[in-house]
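RESIDUES AND SHAPES:
===
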Amino acid sequence: MFMKNKVIKYLIYASGEILLVVIGILIALQINTMNENHKKDQKVITYLKQFTNDLTYDIETLTTLIKNNEIKIKNIDSIQLFSITKDELTPEEIKKFIDLHESLVFESYFIPEKSTYDQLVASSHGDFFQNEVLRKLLFRYYSTNERNEKNNEISTQLYQHHYFTEHITNTILISSESFERFGIKNIKRPNIDFQNLSLNTHYVSAITRRRKNARNQNSNYKRIKGLAENLLKKVENELDLQEVLNP
């Protein structure tokens, strides 16, 4: 009986020890899980803050590009008005006429700030965001920009660089009158043949197509800006929620 009682007590003690070890392991696992979840939550907040910065930068960039294209369109309208209403220009009008062409040789090209998105994709952290709507909006925004760059921006820039800029520069911006604006006189360059300018097919085509491309670009830029603004609101709302849940 004595030995039997001793064995029973030992088994009870051993069972208690095992139970304590199991409880300790479960507590340690729970703490580890909580720590991992906290790290994940903080990583989500970091991503959201970075996306806020990226999207704000994109919106500011698009706003500037849209404004610049609007200036180009306005300048082309003024150039065409000169051509329609004037048979010849005064020295002051010639200077203004040439100045209007300056903005037309600068190219617009939009590439979004993708550092955070690329980091998210490369690290396989796409499932960090439990908000399904936010994930879809992120994918839509960056895929739209990728298509715009491949289908619109690249071809527009190549065409402008090899066609528009060349004919506008050769016809107007390296004329004798253009150099005189900077005090450079008696340079051996031809004057602008203003009376026959409307017969210069390459120049007229370059001006006309430049205006059309600026309008098309702005249409794309405004659409992308709308996507960026909507996405930014969703990101900011999600950031506010995460900071409340994970102070």
